[in-house]
Amino acid sequence: MSMKQIRLNQVGYEPKAGKRAVVCGATETSYMVRNRSTGEVVLEGTLEGPFENVSAGEQNYVADMSSVTIPGEYVICVGEAEANFTVGEHIYEKLYYQSLRFFYLQRCGCRLPEELAGDYAHEVCHDTPARVFGSDVTMDVKGGWHDAGDYGRYVVPAAVTVAALLLAYDKNRKAMGIRLDIPESGGAMPDLLNEVKYELDWMLRMQDPATGKVYHKVTCASFPDFVMPEFETEELILSPPSVTAGATFAACMAMCAPYYENYNEGFSKTMLQAAQKAYAAIKEMQLPGGFLNPEGIVTGEYGDANDRDERYWAAAALYKATGRREYRDDFEALAEEQLMHGYGWADVGTFGNLAFLSCEHPKNEELAGRIRASIIELADHYLANVQADSYAVGVDTYHWGSNYYCAQVGNHLYDAYELTGEEKYRAAAEEQLHYLLGKNPNGYCYVSGFGTVRPEHPHHRPSGAAGRAMPGMLAGGPCEWLADPDAAAHCTGNPPAKCYIDLLGSYSTNEVTIYWNAAMLYLMAEITE
Q1: Which of 104, 297, 321, 488 has its CA 20 to 30 A from that of 374?
Q2: Which residues on adjacent β-strands are paired with residue 2?
Q3: Cα separation, 314 vs 118, whole angstroms
Q4: In whole angstroms, what is the distance from residue 420 CA to residue 435 CA?
């Protein structure tokens, strides 16, 4: 049995955290934990198991090390196999910093100087006016964050990213409010709000000033090679407006406005006005089905045939922001048809639920009770998954962005913890972070620059161009679809949880995105001190 067959959180644990390691293929039934500095044995125990893990194709045992609470460096030993781990009071400080700095390094439309960006410095990029598809009209849509491993900018995932970051800020202002060493650092406004404002400024430019409609995305017609962003110089094209873009834009702007009232009242008012204008526009739009790429454009589609959950979130967010009855009526009508959930870009219902439940304006308390009950019911579904899996992961399937959905599972579980106070939900949410940071069948800490085994070749153009993985990025993780040639070549025949390959070309398992990072940060903010 090798070191890689003891799987645990490779970044480390806070003292009070649960600490359970998964042992694969054990021939021993006992384990011990030693202090690496002194050699002192601090824990001895018997492995739990065996457990058959079908999704990983493994037989697993589990070692519970939760009683190790004194900060220090430790090693768990099972027979001849060993794995190191750390316990510390501020164990995630560097992870917070790098994962938040990722957003600055994804900035578009400006120069990133070497003194702030290091290997990922670049000149001004994508600053030319974009042409509205099918016309000769151009618009200035400079700014925002590059969405993922490519250089496109997309409104729907942008809105979800901003929402998750601000919810994380609410949960843990100490961790999320750190200095990020960005050009705006040192001012009155927290760095996170400055960084988010950079994205919001771009989103405002994506709204048609005459109609209030919101363009779905701005990209070139196709993806570039693995070059720095200033070398993507093809024509920028604004894809047509969509209901999903307009609704998530409205929801995001309404949600964000209060955060900026004390720092920039004018900006706050601009966002709320833009939100109301976008909401009015989507009520006039009659677009059958979801967004589809226009002819000749092959960049990320973010198509979504169901816009009800986006409108659900928008109505709730605007009611919370304004108290206007029309928004409450719209939300309650949609909720009476079907309660909706989700923290993903395609399923955003939970953002609407949280807005409605936290609203200080009058609301239908019977409906609020049903929403709370449905949140707990969903968490119970994920809790059952966690309890049935030796790695304690709660996802239903391993599809594209499975690590993103793992973080979302943690968010849903934590929602139930906040409603009930039951520790089982918080502990299960915590396990999702441990999974992302190394306690998984592939033995990877899925965040670049962290852990002992981590992504070195992410599908990320600045990293590819620099020849070094930008630190602090969450990789997409196992995808049983085998949706790219590298995944198909290297993972065919693998069990679902092991359909991951650390190769530059594997966009279905090894790409990064702004909203995956935001979901992980939201989970971290909930369960860390």
Answers
A1: 321
A2: none
A3: 39
A4: 24
C-alpha torsion sign, points 140, 141, 143, 146: negative
CA–CA distance, 451 with 352 (Å, rounded to integer): 35
Burial of 239 (0-12, 13-18, 19+ CB in 10 A): buried
For each successive 10 residues of the chain (529 residues), what is the average pLDDT?
76 98 91 97 97 97 98 96 96 98 98 98 98 98 98 98 98 97 97 98 98 98 98 98 97 98 97 98 79 96 95 98 98 97 98 98 97 98 98 98 98 98 98 98 98 98 98 98 98 98 98 98 95
Q: What pLDDT sits at residue 27?
A: 83
- For residue 118, give the DSSP letter: G
C-alpha of 143 from chain center: 21
pLDDT of residue 178: 98
pTM of the predicted protein model = 0.97
The total of other beta-carbon atoms located within 10 Å of residue 349's CB is 24
- Report d(CA 392, CA 384) in Å as an integer: 10
User: Which of 225, 236, 319 lies closest to 276 in space, CA to CA?
Assistant: 319
Query: How is residue 240 annotated by DSSP?
Result: P
Two tokens at 336? 């009476």
For residue 87, give the H/E element and its range: strand 81-87
- Helix ranges restricted to H, 67-190: 93-105, 114-117, 155-171, 173-176
Q: Do residues 508 and 500 lie in contact, with contact meaning Cβ atoms separated by under 8 Å?
A: no
Query: Exposed, middle or buried by CB within 10 Å (0-12, 13-18, 19+), for 286?
Result: exposed
Give every strand in the sheet of 41-46, ordered side by side.
Answer: 41-46, 30-35, 72-78, 81-87
Residues 6+ apart with CB under 8 A from 6: 21, 22, 23, 24, 76, 78, 81, 82, 83
**Residues 255, 499: Cα–Cα separation, whole Å:** 37
Distance CA 350, CA 343 (A): 6
Q: What's the pLDDT score for residue 340?
A: 98
Terminal Cα distance for the chain, rounded? 35
* Residue 123 burial (CB count, 10 A): 13
Is the distance from CB of 467 to CB of 456 less than 8 angstroms? no
Bridge partners (DSSP) listed for residue 62: 22, 48
pLDDT at 308: 95
DSSP letter (8 states) at residue 433: H
Q: Active-site positions?
A: 150, 459, 502, 511
Closest CA to 257 of 276, 281, 243, 242: 276
The per-residue pLDDT for 288 is: 56
What residues pair up with 22 in beta bridges, in sequence order?
Answer: 7, 62
Pair 160, 349: CB distance under 8 Å? no
Number of residues assigned to the chain: 529
Provide the residue type at 312 as one letter: Y
Q: Measured between alpha carbons, how far is 14 from 88 in angstroms, rounded to an integer? A: 5
